[in-house]
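User: Is it possible to get a 3D structure for a protein together with its bound compound? The compound here is magnesium ion. I've pasted both below.
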Amino acid sequence: MQTADSKTIETIEAQNKAPRGIRDILPEESWKWAYVLSVTAQTMADFGYSEVYLPIFEHTELFSRGVGDATDIVEKEMYTFVDRGGRSVTLRPEATAGMVRAALEHGLCEQNMSSKLWCWGPMFRYERPQKGRYRQFYQFDAECLGLAGPVADVEIIALSAEIFRRLGLRNLEVVANSVGCPKCRPQYRKVLVDYFTSKKSSLCETCLGRLDRNPLRVLDCKVPECSAVADSAPAIYEHLCDECAAHFEEVKAGLARLNFPYKLDKRLVRGLDYYTKTAYEILSGELGAQNAVCGGGRYDNLAESIGGPHLPGVGFAAGFDRVVLVMEQQGNSFGERPRTEVYVAAQDEAARGAVQILTHKLRREGISAEQDAGDALRGARSFKAQMKSANKIGAAWTCIVGADELAKGSVTVKNMTTGEQNLVAEEEVANYIRRHEARLI
Ligand code: ATP
Ligand code: MG
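Assistant: Yes, that's possible. Here is the predicted structure of the complex:
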């Protein structure tokens, strides 16, 4: 039986942990994220995309209308709450709807202008947490708004693949499909419903429900029996209207022109309702069940569905967490982990003030420096303990200040790799380190 006390303890324990599916990105990992982000930002800039900072929450309606009421995201996965003013707001489950909302709100695509925008940050979905699947996860996201032609689709696919190429990701597979448009999809939908109805006895409970509401989603069901039925289903790209068919041909021709390997996947439909024409994903062999590192496509009717004018768009979202995971599994480089260059040590109590001053000076010069700030139990640390810290943090240099150095206005600068020591005038320390730095790398 549970006593009141043990319940209290449980509550306290729960309070001291992040909620399920939520994790902290700690220093061991965060420097890798910074690297991935810098490569992403540079690639976005090279393709002409400008960064936007979007809000983390929006009116719930933006997602129910934009992403679509019948999608898993809106039906089951949103973090929705009522704010103190009685409005329903939702933590963003994805970025595209917010980006289109922002472009419309600020007139970024008025008078036939197009906008190429990117963003990154946390997204929230109430999913079953597992490897590569979290409730708060991060995406980087590019959206090309105001361009209807297939060149933009090819550019978006190429941009996502180029980011992954620069990050050194290997064994990726690009899979593409066309999901048609409101002109041709209803006819295909009928063909599909007829086909699945004839195979009803093999479909899972969820798919039987989808048959009425969202039959295209049956195509990407992971249940083996449904999957087998879906494998033999009619392909949407054989039922496209002339416009969608021509667009798809041009996208394929563009990818071929860039020597871009991809596979057609007639079962690729994506989980968001707003897609029209091109849909694609980039898959990694390294991720098991959560194998998509990136998903995207065209969404020519999204702006209208959220109450705006007609505004074509194409974009992608990549899973930051999963990209880092794949890079770790493939042993890819994240560049150099930043480390502290200099540890400044006091040989005795009288030198503590000079250590504080020198540490601050070095930092102002852009040289990363650390000093002994004492600790909660023992206060200031002995000289020996300070030298231990210098080794522990992997400092390239140690600056030692003692009675001798104080008397001479100098500092003993020790190269931690070679053990070589030199007496350097205090005001020269930063220059001395900078001069010798190049030799260490
Ligand atoms: P999945 O099929 O894995 O559920 P999705 O189709 O729901 O992906 P999108 O909405 O297209 O995903 O999001 C784009 C990318 O964001 C995905 O390819 C994936 O890398 C990443 N992603 C999506 N959901 C999560 C999650 N819960 N945790 C971590 N990354 C995610
Ligand atoms: Mg999903």
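The chain has two domains: 20-184+240-330, 342-435. The longest strand covers residues 115-124.
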